[in-house]
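The following record pairs a protein chain with its ligand, adenosine-5'-diphosphate.
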Amino acid sequence: MELINKTIELVKEKLEGTESGHDWFHIERVWKLSLKIQEKEGGDKLIIELAALLHDIADPKFHNGDETLASKIVNEFLTEQKVDSETIEKVLFIIENMSFKNRNDAPGNLPLELKIVQDADRLDAIGAIGIARTFNFGGYKNNLMYHPDIEPKLNQTKEQYKKSNGTTINHFYEKLLLLKDLLNTKTAREIAEHRHQFMLQFLEEFYKEWNVTF
Ligand code: ADP
Ligand code: NI
């Protein structure tokens, strides 16, 4: 479909050269996962595809904390593509409310389309890919991989979470291991089960090798 192809083109262009956990391939996986979940759970396919493709178009953490840039780009692009304003509103709502760090500010009753794209994004944050993305991001930030004396910080506020330069292993306890229970759909929960177990197994191995207790 022409609109989807145009959207892919825009996303690829905007994400050129980004950190590899948030690049076009992350978007492609979230897009495919969203479609897989949509097949089982329903929801408006076009809204889901557009939101999945556009959800990280201008992540504030790579744009000096600017939280309005993404909406501006998406609004301009979809208007230019002659997408109706109701669809644009729905896509913008998803993009503005699906992030993990904004989860405490999001309104209560979320549309199915948001739930699906959010689940897809969260699934890409766990499992083997999730582990790889997290270490890549930690390296990009020059954070420590692990420090036995630095404890994970649970229940951080959004500001504390954004500033955090804790260890990458702690990020598992601060976010990745929490995601399984935050998923919205049954389909995503089923996919998450194996990925979650895989992360637990990874951590077990990591500590054994670190402590030389294998
Ligand atoms: P969202 O964009 O959904 O609010 P984040 O940007 O916080 O979520 O996280 C997206 C991904 O970036 C995480 O799943 C993880 O892989 C990586 N990431 C974010 N913060 C950290 C961190 N402090 N250490 C390691 N990886 C991180
Ligand atoms: Ni994402």
